[in-house]
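Hello,

Following up on my earlier ticket. Below are the three sequence lines again, exactly as submitted.
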Amino acid sequence: MKKLIQQLTEEFGPSGYEAPVRDLIKSLIVRHVDEVRVDAMGNLIARKKAVPQNGIASRRIMLAAHMDEIGVMISYIDDKAFLRFTPIGGVFPSTLLGSRVVFTDGSVGVIGREKPDHPDELPSISKMFIDVGAKDREHLTRKVGDPATFTRPFVDIGERLVAKAFDDRIGCAILIQSILNNTVSPHEVYYVFTVQEEVGLRGAVTSAYGVEPDVAIAVDITLTGDTPEAQPMAVALGAGPAIKVKDRGMLAHPAVKDWLVDTAKRLGIPYQLEVLEMGTTDAMAIQTSRAGVAAGVISIATRYAHTPSEMIDFADVQGAVSLIDGLLGAGLPF
Amino acid sequence: MQSKELLKSLSEANGISGYEASVRDLVRAGFMQYAEEFVTDTMGNAIAIKRGQRDAAYPQRSIMLAGHMDEIGLLVTKLEKGFLRFTTVGGFDLRVLLGQEVIVHGRQELPGIIGSRAPHVLSAEDRERIVPLDHLFVDVGLTEDELAQQVQVGDVVTLRRQFTELSGDLVSGKAFDDRAAVACIAEALKQLSKMKHSWDVYAVATVQEETGLKGAMTSAFGLTPDIGIAIDVGHGDMPGVSEADTVKVGGGPALGFGPNIHPLMYARLVQTAKADEIAYQIDPIPGASGTDAWAMQVARAGIPTALISIPLRYMHTTVETLAIKDIERIGRLLARFISSLDETFAEELGLSIPGQIP
Amino acid sequence: MSLRELSEAFGPSGNEAAVRQIVLERIRPFVDEYRIDSIGNLIALKRGTGQSSRKVMVAAHMDEVGLMIVQVDRGGYLRFRPIGGIDPRVLLAKKVLIGDQRIPGVIGVKPVHLLDSKARQQVMKVEDLSIDIGTMGEDDSGRAVKVGDYAVFDTHYEELGPASRTVKGKALDDRAGCAVLIELLRDRQAYDVYGVFTVQEEVGLRGARVAAYSIAPDAAFVLEGTICDDLPKDKDQSPTTKLGDGPAITVMDRSFIANQSLVQLLLRTAEQNGIPCQLKQPGLGGTDAGAIHLSREGVPSVAVAVPVRYLHSPVSLLSLDDLDNTIRLMRLALPEVSSLSLAH
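Thanks for your patience. The regenerated structure is below:
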């Protein structure tokens, strides 16, 4: 599974430009599901039919993980071929200095900064630029509107993994692994790889409308409170998949939360409960689709989220896969 | 039940956004004295249906009344050395939290205190500072081990406050925002049970208004009413706040006006209030009303929506204060409005005929 | 064209009836059907020839930023709040029209002579401003104006330099888009065109949302008047758009990421026909496309805009060349939509 994770994190896919990630995922799952389609927004929607089981009510379950990652877009090109840019999603300016970006064609640029007005000035995006090494405008092939993402290799440091875009390629990897595990489910399961989460949960809005699930679970990352002087938050790397109670955008449906907790307990999977004070996930958008969907979230504790060096614990990932297999394999308690 | 008694029981019930179940039981009992059907939807909205008696010649029409039953509250984020760290659900003024009594809904209900340091140990600088959320904590008086047995991350914390009758007609308590609206709707159903009405009434106590109008969004989609009225609280007159931003407590229903409100719905409410000599006030709202009306108006292909506000002082604190007679007036206004609904009004609004493509 | 009439019409968000009436009179002769929905959108249908089963929504918003009266004070002055995003600094010493009777009023300012040096540097808050309608006291004002009345800036439309073909007026955001859409509805396409003149864009893309839901289009074009910031500045990282450089196409703004096939269609059409056009600087502003593209299962959408200087202020400015080129570009691009692949 680590190979799969590496492949996914190293792929290019800022919000709105997820095609390379979508093509990769499609190629990995197409033979293992009953139907695959891409909707008008670009969401990849895979369906597995229910295998009826006596005494178990079949439900339609949507599992969602987003394919997109944060990035930047060229907004202006000056006379000397330096590129000004605007963020795609929540980019922290402080992580940009020294970063490299990569464009759709694989070409690379570095991020530079104007002279600070005073030595300890915090960098702001409006005072930064991308340098692609063009001698002048004549030699520049880039244009306004070109998207780019950060480039950073995947590193396996044993139990812990480091890469860009674990947010939310790790969710994609978990869904893919669950498909490959081929758990027999009495439920109709939609695996939805969404687009444009980082710019406002947009893919989840339209895909949830199209899928019309009874129950939905987003698989995404969450922050941790286990680093020096971190926010007071009882989530730590390696303590198991986190089951969300609340984040800034939503309250998990109590019945879904309990279902996740009870299933983890039943299978002896370590888990932790999560209350996140910043950020939200696709589950927020899915919850209010049509007349409402019972929605919850499985989160992977992630340090240094939205930087090019996010860190996760591999055991948490494996726990999340087992938890999902357990959820799909049995009847729902509500 | 009288409005005051119902409001008291609703106010003292605990039900923060997302965890409204115990309030829902009271709502159900309150509404079902006068309605025929009751549904709880996926999100947890409490929906009572009171059918109208229509002439078979006319299409079936419906009106949705929405008042939210959730209240703002707290959730445990971390257990720390025998104390509880927490986050807020809904918009709090952190200044009102210091020294409040709470109930922690762990394995059992635990009374607790949001502790404040004694003034003696505070520096002059400390006293000028608002205590930030990550410095606030709940003390339930248990040892670290006992606490870990009783409470876990994600447990709900509600604020404690008994309903109080002040002098005059005013009452004070927590969660009047927006359980007072639930009392208004119950009053409307009660009055309506003595009147004739041809449109079906969906009386909805919505959930999760405080976290983004979510219950109204999904219930309006699910019910697809022809028209809707949200009932919420509006800032009442109080010292230090401009008259331009408030309505008068005891001055009657405040009828919202602005982009969020269909002008014909507003006009008919005014007309009804005048005809029945119900005191009312105008509440101009230039943009987002921040109420369930904002979600209802744009459900599906759009729903003509109105907003009635209950004048209320000290919103989002544990001493919200209002006049009981405003609740009774709103109940009466809603009942009169609903009993007056007819197909002529449907035509004025341009409502489509069910079954025909708009 | 009717830009003068459209610009001078009274139409703050929530009270667009006067604009709707003007638009309706213009389009009635050449659209097949129209209706006004519950929120106030004017939805016109220009039927296709039947050669394509697609439905395409083309939208422009009728509403403008404005003011709402929230209190008539004891002196008869009117307290107000903004409708939509207005920089309070532009409000001082402006003329407005209030309510159905279009009562004129002025936003008064304390004379500079009476201000100390600190006060002169302070931005006035909307809460501290008031409108004077020349009446004597609360009762007198109450007869002319009531709480809840809408108000807009009182600005005359005027043509400026003949060479540059520029004009000034209020509400060019988005009466310019309305003017373009009116022209586009003359053409019959292979597919059904829903021309939607939306309401309440400035208070949260409200009209477009419900119209898109009821139409369920296969693709959408949003016609706008957009930010043109090609002004003298200390450091110019971007003009956002430039006056005279033609229609501005959005790739990404705060409300949506445009469908790439539709962006390419517009760029290609402009290039093939020698129509000037520009890309709007990504990352700024938002339009009705933000609501439309998320409707139901998603709608491939793009925004095309006439650059407008000083939008959301009492007086804005645009180039009629840009307006004409926007119409030309859209007229040539729309027929191509019937055969365009919109799949990912």
